[in-house]
């Protein structure tokens, strides 16, 4: 016979999760938030239950946030949405909110549960990307067993970069530069070494190089955005 786990234990587990989590009843009103939620908002359960949490949503995002939530609720469907929520320091952070309906053992609908992720840094970086007129690429440096840079992976690129390089974003994201541009490891411009030094040493450099492989002159200003090293 299957032994049931008390709902109180589930709530204790959720309360220890590192990312903000909320729960709503069949009335679409929130009735539970975990500790990570309060660590983010700086508020109390009494302030957030019901519709209280919505007071922290940025006014420009409020209508679409509420519509997305209620539309999914009516259809008993999962949803994902991005909106700005006020942080305890008084600033707004972009968060990704993922909600799903949940049911009891008899498959009766008993509410929604959702998990939130702070994507503020990534969101601001994407906005920066989209507004730049110069070619821009975000790379992850790959090292060998001794810690020397041997390759880098395309994480994101903007439209001007596509045009300059003659590459399609959908064809190269997630791929190594040695896959996208075979032979680049032998290019006198030595892109891998220079970009690797920026990531590994945290130094910013500026250099002009002619690449025989690409038959173009480049002015490069690699900058350490985040220490991504494999």
Determine the CATH superfamily of the largest domain. Answer: PAS domain
Structural class: alpha+beta
- How many helices? The count is 9
Largest sheet: 5 strands, antiparallel
Percentage of residues in DSSP E strands: 25-35%
Give the SSE order as H and E letters. Answer: HEEHHHEEEHEEHHHHEE
Write out the strand line-up for the largest beta sheet, numbering strands in chain order: 2-1-5-4-3
Task: Please identify, by name, the CATH architecture of the largest domain.
Answer: 2-Layer Sandwich
Number of E-type strands: 9
Number of domains: 2
Mean pLDDT: 86
Protein model, in words:
The chain has nine helices and nine strands. The chain starts with 6 loop residues before the first helix and ends in a 10-residue tail after the last strand. With 230 residues, it is of the alpha+beta class. The protein has two domains: 7-121, Beta-Lactamase (2-Layer Sandwich); 132-220, no CATH class.
Helix-strand layout with pairing:
Blueprint (H helix, E strand, L loop, with lengths): L6 H9 L5 E4 L5 E4 L1 H7 L3 H4 L13 H14 L3 E8 L5 E12 L5 E10 L1 H12 L5 E7 L5 E9 L1 H7 L3 H4 L4 H4 L10 H11 L5 E5 L4 E5 L10
Antiparallel strand pairs: 1-2, 1-5, 3-4, 4-5, 6-7, 8-9
